[in-house]
Amino acid sequence: MKRFYLTLILLCSAAVAPPAYAAMGDMPGMANMGNSAKNMGAASVQTAVTQAFMAQGKINSVNPDAGTVNITHGPIKALAWPGMTMNFPVQDKSMLNGLKAGEIVDFDLAKDSTGRYAITRITPIGR
Ligand SMILES: [Cu+2]
Question: Which stretch is the leader sequence (predicted)?
């Protein structure tokens, strides 16, 4: 009886062992994939961060219906933009709440899905 169980155990471990070794053999590869996925994740986060451009300007008008704010902004070197007056769409119309014409603002721009530069953050300075 003991011998039978021992044989069973040996058979079982023999049956289990190859996949276990195979799995262990895969582990380093998977670990590398995990690392590169992590690195890719970090890179895409960094890209997202570098794709946000900081700027400052003065609000000329706030247009909640259009979801835009008209700003005379200073040069944005990272985009090679000179200073100009233009309408910016905002990522979320609620961002326009409380903004007033004449306020100096600090804002971030990022390209939206349609390729326009939209305001992703806007903060009045010195409030
Ligand atoms: Cu502009």
Answer: 1-22
Ligand 1 center to 33 CA (angstroms): 42
Measured CA to CA in angstroms, residue 111 lies from 41, 67, 102, 115 at distances of 19, 16, 25, 5
Continuous segment of H or E residues that includes residue 35: helix 2-50
**In the chain, domain spans:** 1-50, 53-124
| pLDDT tens digits for range 62-107 | 999 999 999 999 999 999 999 999 999 999 999 999 999 999 999 9
Ligand 1 centroid–CA 127 distance in Å is: 24
Q: Which residues surround ligand 1, an ion (CB under 5 A)?
A: 84, 86
Band (112; pLDDT cuts 50, 70, 90): confident
